[in-house]
Amino acid sequence: MNRMAGFDRELLRIYSELDRDRLMALVVRYACDRLGASGSSVFLRDDITGRYVLRGTTGLLEGVTMPAERIEYEPGEGLTGWVAKHGQPLRIANVKDSGELRRIAEDLVWSRKYSEISAKPGRAYLGVPILSRDGATVLGVLRVSGKAEGGQFDEQDEALLSHVAAMVNIAIENSQRYEREKRRARYFRLLLDISSELDPRRPIAEMLQAVVDRVREGFRTEGCQVYLRAEENSNHIVLRAASGLPETLVGELTCEAGEGLTGHIVCTGTAVQIREAAALADWHDPHVAEVASHLPSGVYRSFLGVPLRLGDETLGTLELINKIPSAPGHRDWFTDDDEEYLRLLSTAIGGVLEGARYLKALNDVGVTAMRMQRVASFGTLAQRIRHEVANPLAVARLALANLRSDLRDVLGPLSDQEESEAEVTAPLVPEHS
After folding, report:
1. Burial of 364 (0-12, 13-18, 19+ CB in 10 A)
2. Parent domain of 317
3. How far apart are the first and last CA of the chain?
4. Beta strand pairing call for 37-45 and 138-147
5. Tens-place pLDDT, residues 393-425
6. Do 186 and 277 belong to one domain?
7. Which end of the chain is more exposed for a tag (fewer CB within 10 A), N or C?
């Protein structure tokens, strides 16, 4: 049966696979087996950097699959980059023959960055572009190398590999849609999960610590931090919660508005993304070296920080440090999707912080009102004491007056001396009611 007979069972598996990593593994194994090659690899374009990143390979040695480090090519770099830049197939009999490379194209150079050839016999190479449906964009490069028994790849091999690349094009677009929806669902589940920790009635420190722990795990980062403005000085910014870093740094790391990464975010109210460690030097952040010393990797290589805002007021920052790739070859920096969902979370946190501040203000007002009530109650109590003391004295005075009246009836009018003595004793029983 002719090898160009397209839709065999394995190609259908490739076409129907939605998980990108499994898809790439199927593609390189299929290409390697069908063309009798020693090795095969597939590189996909990173939409952010424009570079072509190794996403699947049969490996250099038996049992070796994806390397831990990120392998990527600029357009035009090496053989793979040449295919990506020009969007044309490339078939070479001997990649080590510089004369053959120059005869094909003046800008064609074997970079040796990542090659299956170096560990297996044979020097033949065949690479084809994976084009978008409209043919305008090179989505990736599919390549094979090391034809069995030292043979060469022919036109039929090139046609078959191009056919596989066309199938991969459709599968990649399906996989991208699937991954996009899957990522969106994962983030929304994460946001719902974290929202269960947001309660303005909880102690602020406890709540923020629970949030940064969940965020670090959900966003797959080495570190997560929350900085807030100090209550006594709004230009002073203090680390209030951290995950992946020692607890001793909480309350100790500080900066001023406009200083370093955190100060810039607070001062401008804008997010900051950093994808390469070299870019950190431009920020002159005072805490980069100290934080890096506590990270598992020991390197501060990527950063994403968003403001905690409530209306026009910036309360602080929510920051992520060092994206952990979900698989070898995946991105180790933060994307626009990460920023979008982190902003949603920061808005919720800002609202809860404002709610906590409002509850604290209410509590302070309640305490003041209670104190005023106590003062007022003292005045009421004093009046009641005066009234209660006066009541027995009034009864005694009335009894004395009645007694004097009865004595007059029995004894007759009092003498001048007796009247004088009564007038002297009368003030001893004052009139109170």
Report:
1. exposed
2. 182-354
3. 123
4. antiparallel
5. 565 666 666 666 666 666 666 566 555 655 555
6. yes
7. N
